[in-house]
């Protein structure tokens, strides 16, 4: 179970205030291959981690672009997964690389949502700037694992929080993206990276 916290203020009163503060954990199986956050794409305009699981390559769970597009995804727990469903990570990657505004994109996703296993998706245009809901997601299937998976930082033998990310966007459009990632499948080894850039005007 992943978790996202964010605060958004499109018009901060102070120059020192942030328009956006976002903090997120990605919980995933330790053996699932992924790349740590870095810029990618033809113009190096998208900053995100990348899923490298066979058949799901190129998807991501959280990212931001220099054009001010931000998207984040959490999975929705359900009793049975459709093994033939499309990779949910492509929903984030497609928004970050598209020219669609967030409302149009979310309308498109709502029409195509049945092609994926359950998910929650946040999509935003920054230049326009145990929980009962979790328990209801899987009912009898989910309740036995809530004590393990509903923590802010999940730590189980083969599954848990692999990445923690904080994105700050200040009043001038300066972005600071800091991520702490588990190295390989060893929950005792971590690496922290920070990227900074300014949103394009």
From TrEMBL:
Originating species: Bos taurus
Protein's UniProt name: Transport and golgi organization 2 homolog
GO annotation, cellular component aspect: Golgi apparatus
Gene Ontology biological-process annotations: Golgi organization; protein secretion
A Pfam family that the UniProt record links to this protein: TANGO2
Gene: TANGO2
InterPro entries tied to this protein: TANGO2
Recorded superkingdom: Eukaryota
